[in-house]
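Justification of computing resources. Each target in the renewal requires a structure prediction run like the one illustrated here; the chain below, 203 residues long, is used simply to show the kind of job we budget for.
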Amino acid sequence: NTDYATPLSLWQTVVARRPHGRARMSYATELVAAGRNDEAVGELRQAVHDFPDARYALGTELVAVGKLDEGVSELQTFIRQSPEQPNRLPAHLLLGTVWLSQGKLAEAEKQFQSVLDRGDSNRARKGLTDVAAAHRAAADKDVRENAPLEAAREAQGLLQSKITEIEATLKAAVVIEEHGSDQIGSRIRLGSTIVLQEQETGR
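Resulting structure tokens:
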């Protein structure tokens, strides 16, 4: 069946037949892998209506295609919707990295610090180190001579690395959904605990 020949065609078919946010996010993931980023952004824009967690992927993709202001806005909205959720921490890191690359040091520092306040993070500590380096360069009046700052250049590289990492994660992600109303115990499903018994020994 050509509708299911590839993950891309599979999710395209699912979205066409049963459009919902999770399916759109999976389809967007395959579009990104195929280099069709603009189409992926379009799917993610629709996905956030009934699957709010897709907003992080939307913000990331917007940053990846160079729409930094819009990407930042989506990431901020994603954090604001459930600020205490652990899955908001990568959004703080990405925001901090974007702002550091733009020379917005106070905003970047706040994002990195918010991650450290909730636990240790090598990326957050590295981000704060880069912010401090940028502050020192500005204090030494090296901005004009060295613009853009070395810290900002490095942050730009880190940003691209982070985007690549997130896109690889999205590509490997699989949305698992359960359907039907089978009675408990009638079948193995996600989260089930099973006990195996050897037929010959009964153990």
